[in-house]
From TrEMBL:
Residue ranges constituting the Amidohydrolase-related domain according to the UniProt record: 11-309
Family statement drawn from the similarity comment of this UniProt entry: Belongs to the metallo-dependent hydrolases superfamily. DHOase family. Class II DHOase subfamily.
Record PROSITE patterns: DIHYDROOROTASE_1, DIHYDROOROTASE_2
InterPro entries attached to this UniProt entry: Amidohydro-rel, DHOdimr, Dihydroorotase_CS, Metal_Hydrolase
Classification via Gene3D superfamilies: Metal-dependent hydrolases
Annotated keywords: Hydrolase, Metal-binding, Plasmid, Pyrimidine biosynthesis, Zinc
Binding site for Zn(2+) 2: 99, 136, 174
UniProt protein name: Dihydroorotase
Annotated Zn(2+) 1 binding sites: 13, 15, 99, 246
Length: 342
């Protein structure tokens, strides 16, 4: 196959940041995707409808001239979020989901939820107005091994949560384990996003020839058997699994540091990365539904009608793209790719 034409996809999990960083990264996403679910972990986070409206305006203002893009906004759940905040979010129409970060789990999550049970009144309201809950599904307990934090989150928090709120629509974000795949398959009203890094790399990438901070994201890359399980889920044609890049830009200096930030930047070449992953298991024919159909179906939004084309071309992922004061290293920098969006 030399060309692959598919319905224009959407990114169901994206970090755009703000200010100059937003202006630098947004054009990459706009080029590939029609819409994206925008993560609210700014400093300070997006906690109210007013915060989300203002952030949405800043995103709209940063879209390059003449291009189309729809930011789908989210609210950041804190210990102080009220059921009323949820009703107002629902009424806004532009807020499509609420994001749960366990306090301290990842970049800018200090205001996250300290105890998931404290959110029950809010989850009740979300269930009632059918507002999806997006989960960063990792425990933060220091006594739980970093590589087990997703599995333990599912056992300790997600299973009980779904028992308390069986009709709450949940997206387990950026899943990384076969445990997550199994759980999502077994439960109702739950879907999952899968990132390009978790489809293409296992945890060896973090240590190949030395410590490689540009492969460090959260949840952290796992063993090969987990990567295989994710790949099988992504190509399965099951609508519970869809595309969410978790593209999360950090400057080179904040990644290459004695305490480097978590996050992989993939907005530059997200579709190409997914195409490589799907082709590696001869499943390119399954890419369109994963990238362009199952996400809008879950969010009860229309599928896009425009189409985009990838062509078979060899090119090298650049070592860096311009970003703030120290540049931005794309996922897989320097590696050869065989698909390119035209
Ligand atoms: C994200 C970021 O940098 O905002 N980092 C990451 O490793 N994925 C936060 C997140 O989604 O966990
Ligand atoms: Zn994320």
């Amino acid at each position: 196959m030399q060309k692959l034409t598919i319905t224009r996809p959407d990114d169901w999990h994206l970090h755009l940041r703000d200010g100059a960083a937003l202006k630098a990264v947004l054009p990459y996403t706009v080029r590939q995707f029609a819409r994206a679910i925008i993560m609210p972990n700014l400093k300070p986070p997006i906690r109210s409808v007013a915060d989300a409206a203002a952030y949405r305006d800043r995103i709209l203002a940063a879209i390059p001239e003449g291009q189309q893009f729809e930011p789908l906004m989210t609210l950041y759940l804190t210990d102080n979020t009220s059921p009323d905040d949820i009703l107002r979010a629902k009424e806004s129409q532009f807020i499509k989901a609420v994001k749960y970060y366990p306090a301290g789990a990842t970049t800018n999550s200090d205001s996250g939820v300290t105890d998931i049970q404290k959110g029950d009144r809010v989850f009740e309201a979300m269930q009632q107005v059918d507002m999806p809950l997006l989960l960063h599904g990792e425990v933060t307990d220091n006594d739980v091994d970093t590589f087990d934090r997703e599995k333990v989150f599912i056992e300790r928090h997600l299973i009980p949560l779904k028992q308390r709120f069986p009709n709450l629509r949940v997206v387990l974000e950026h899943i990384t384990t076969s445990d997550a795949v199994q759980y999502v398959l077994s439960a109702n009203t739950i879907a999952a996003t899968i990132t390009p890094q978790h489809l293409l790399f296992n945890r060896n990438a973090l240590f190949k020839g030395g410590l490689c901070p540009h492969f460090y994201c959260l949840p952290i890359l796992k063993r090969e058997e987990h990567r295989q399980a994710l790949l099988q889920a992504a190509i399965s044609g099951n609508p519970k699994f869809f595309l969410g890049t978790d593209s999360a830009p950090h400057t080179r200096t904040s990644k290459e540091s004695s305490c480097g930030c978590a996050g992989c930047f993939s907005a530059l070449h997200a579709l190409e990365l997914y195409a490589e992953a799907f082709e590696s298991v001869k499943a390119l024919d399954k890419l369109e539904a994963f990238a362009s159909f199952y996400g809008p179906d879950f969010y009860q939004l229309p599928r896009n009608t425009e189409r985009i084309t990838l062509s078979k071309t060899t090119w090298r992922i650049p070592d860096e793209v311009p970003f703030m004061e120290s540049g931005l290293v794309p996922l897989g920098a320097g590696q050869e790719m065989t698909w390119q969006m035209v």
